[in-house]
């Protein structure tokens, strides 16, 4: 990781990190939870962790994507510390493996959405991270990644340089008598607060969270073009613009010629 992935990522972006002090205060092992916008998310998040924490972190990765070929399994296991996680169906062995690793002292990075966003907005989070926290008693450290979708969205054909931010939130402990579903709701709320902070500031986001008015990171329940129109500028791929047609409908337009995802 330190000799290949981290330097390669920093050539494309220099991350702005907010709230990293929580990583020095929390007792390991921890469960790191973040939104998932791009294949850049894993190397980005790993690259900003303290060296000692990074060396003891494994990544829950989709078994059907990263472990469907022997060479891919070896590549991602050795380069990123990836472990297979079933996302298409409930699989007790995947959950038990994650729990066992955390109990053995490994930090675990999880993207609970189960896959990259198709349009820049977050998706509903699943309960896997909350399940591991419930069964290990270890804290959850929420994080929000901003800017990676604009650099390399799902389906993109090349990498663009860009600005990225990583925001860490307060650690969440499993409460006595709390089931995994309620903990998952608290994790989602904290990530939503960080998403709000990435577009405003800490104080404004904290006030909205306190009054239960945090904007949903899931985006508007609307047509595809309206969702694209509402996407924050920092999350929008630079070569993609949403324009108004004469009929008032939104039309997504991309620059002609070169790949829309390359410089």
Strand fraction equals 15-25%
Give the terminus-to-terminus CA distance: 26 Å
Estimated structural class: alpha/beta
Q: Would you identify the CATH H-level superfamily?
A: Glycerol-3-phosphate (1)-acyltransferase
Helix content: 25-40%
How would you characterize the overall build of this protein?
The protein is α/β, with parallel strands linked by helices. It has one domain: Glycerol-3-phosphate (1)-acyltransferase. Helix content is 38%, strand content 16%. The chain has helices at residues 5-12, 21-25, 41-48, 51-54, 63-66, 70-80, 92-103, 128-136, 148-151, 180-199, 202-210, 224-230, and strands at residues 16-18, 31-34, 57-62, 82-85, 107-110, 140-146, 165-168, 240-244, 250-254. The protein has a seven-stranded mixed β-sheet, sandwiched between helices. A two-stranded antiparallel sheet has the order 8-9. Strand 8 (240-244) and strand 9 form a beta hairpin. Helix 1 packs across helix 3, helix 7 (92-103) packs across helix 8 (128-136) and helix 8 (128-136) packs across helix 10 (180-199). It is globular and about 45 Å long. The two termini are 26 Å apart.
Question: Gist?
Answer:
The chain is of the alpha/beta class. Helices cover 38% and strands 16% of the residues.
Secondary structure blueprint with pairings:
Elements: H1 5-12, E1 16-18, H2 21-25, E2 31-34, H3 41-48, H4 51-54, E3 57-62, H5 63-66, H6 70-80, E4 82-85, H7 92-103, E5 107-110, H8 128-136, E6 140-146, H9 148-151, E7 165-168, H10 180-199, H11 202-210, H12 224-230, E8 240-244, E9 250-254
Parallel strand pairs: 1-7, 2-5, 2-6, 3-4, 3-5
Antiparallel strand pairs: 6-7, 8-9
Helix pairs in contact: 1-3, 7-8, 8-10, 10-11
